[in-house]
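Hi there,

I know you've been waiting on this one. I reran it after we fixed the sequence typo, so this is the corrected version. Both the input and the resulting structure follow.
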Amino acid sequence: MRILIIEDEIKSAEYLKKGLGDSGFQVEVANDGIDGLFIAQSNDFDLLILDVMLPGIDGWGVIRRFRERSQVPVLFLTARDAVEDRVKGLELGADDYLIKPFSYAELLARVRTLLRRTPMRQQDIVEMADLEVDMRKRRALRGGQRIDLTNQEFALLQLLLQHQGEVLSRSQIASQVWDMNFDSDTNVVDVAIRRLRAKIDDAFAVKLIQTVRGMGYRIEAPLP
């Protein structure tokens, strides 16, 4: 999913871009309100992360004009913590408001929450860390290396990526990949995950497929 960050603090913008990129998002950055508004209106994004204090046009002006043409979620990220500022941002159409300084983990949680509220667009290319998956051509690359997957392995990887960051239970996976009811005595899901992990993760330092004990599995890039 695509995110636009409009932030004039260069280091903060680059930190967010790297973190969100490593978490599987496609990220672009603008460092002033004029460029940010133009990029936001000229491209399809799934989320805007918007600072208030911007050169050119401030965040209030950006969201006011952006809301004339789009209902894409907007997360305000700013040091302005007065109640009246938060109220103003929400009244202008912001979907959430996060005060600086913030933890990256909280930002990521809020980003995912906002994105879950909107219908997911089917992407042709999904990237996470150095994994690249072409959904249309059903092709996967890791670190530039082609990974050969069976139809069921690709379906499993596709399901995990469509719900990246979310824990999927064995029954959810079984019902969507194999169209079967999960039997607790059957280890088909665990075996499939183990085979997929052998191809996707074993030869690489960064592990993407994670086991959440007692709950299920998820795919997620580690926090920077």
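Quick highlight: Residues 64 and 85 are 14 Å apart (CA to CA).

Best,
R. S.
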